[in-house]
């Protein structure tokens, strides 16, 4: 079986935010697909501190991975070995490369077990006050300035035309620059939700305002995990 194990969004998240079954599934196996070994070990320790770290067998599954890189793990799964799949943050396979193994499991008749957990994308959406029935997640915006401008204005146009909420992210160290770009390229009356440090009881920041208000009240977002939502 492949267990899809959620990760915390903040290391300060209280453990009672999470279902006890997460710990149970972590204790069921020593074999895990992970995007980053250091992060995965911290997540495993958070949920199951009694788990013996030297016993862990971690297989890197990142955006560069291909099936050929995972042959050893796939052979183990075909022989009956259970695996867990742990994202960097939130749910596996959403803004995460884990779907490669999930797809392979379906093709090879290996059971996939999803486990409830937080998704920063969904938590940002439900906290925004925007349309939660119809929405699109776009991942990361282009880095090139002209391409980014075009994409931002296209997202704004989609909100105006369809009413669909438009969700996107940025690498945390570029968050402040993204906010500056949004202020520059969007109509002053277009509404934006910024949801940062979600699930951190000390520093969670979630607010929805028109761009003209964000221009006057810019939060400090440098190196802070954040999700951005445009809507109406």
From TrEMBL:
UniProt keyword annotation of Cell inner membrane present: no
Gene Ontology process terms (BP): methylation; rRNA processing
UniProt xrefs under CDD domains: RsmI_like
Gene3D superfamilies cross-referenced by the UniProt entry: Cobalt-precorrin-4 Transmethylase, Domain 1, Methyltransferase, Cobalt-precorrin-4 Transmethylase, Domain 2
Superkingdom of the source species: Bacteria
Start and end residues of each Tetrapyrrole methylase domain: 34-197
Methyltransferase is among the record's keywords: yes
Protein known as: SAM-dependent methyltransferase
Native organism: Chryseobacterium koreense CCUG 49689
């Amino acid at each position: 079986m492949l267990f899809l194990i959620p990760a915390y969004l903040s290391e300060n998240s209280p453990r009672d935010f999470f279902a006890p079954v997460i710990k149970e599934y972590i204790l069921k196996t020593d074999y895990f697909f992970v995007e980053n070994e250091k992060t995965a070990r911290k997540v495993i320790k958070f949920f199951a501190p009694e788990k013996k770290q030297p016993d862990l067998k971690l297989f890197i599954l990142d955006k560069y991975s291909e099936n050929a890189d995972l042959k050893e793990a796939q052979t183990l799964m075909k022989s009956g070995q259970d695996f867990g799949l742990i994202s960097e943050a939130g749910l596996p396979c959403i803004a995460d490369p884990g779907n490669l193994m999930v797809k392979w499991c379906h093709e090879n008749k290996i059971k996939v077990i999803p486990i409830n957990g937080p998704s920063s994308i969904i938590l940002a959406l439900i906290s925004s006050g925007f349309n939660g029935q119809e929405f699109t997640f776009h991942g990361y915006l282009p880095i090139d300035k002209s391409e980014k401008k075009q994409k931002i204005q296209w997202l704004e146009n989609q909100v105006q035309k369809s009413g669909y909420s438009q969700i996107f992210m940025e690498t945390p160290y570029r968050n402040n620059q993204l906010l500056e770009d949004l202020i520059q390229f969007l109509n002053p009356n277009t509404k934006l939700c910024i949801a940062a440090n979600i699930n951190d009881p000390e520093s969670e920041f979630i607010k929805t305002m028109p761009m003209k208000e964000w221009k006057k009240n810019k939060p400090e977002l440098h190196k802070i995990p954040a999700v951005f939502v445009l809507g109406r």
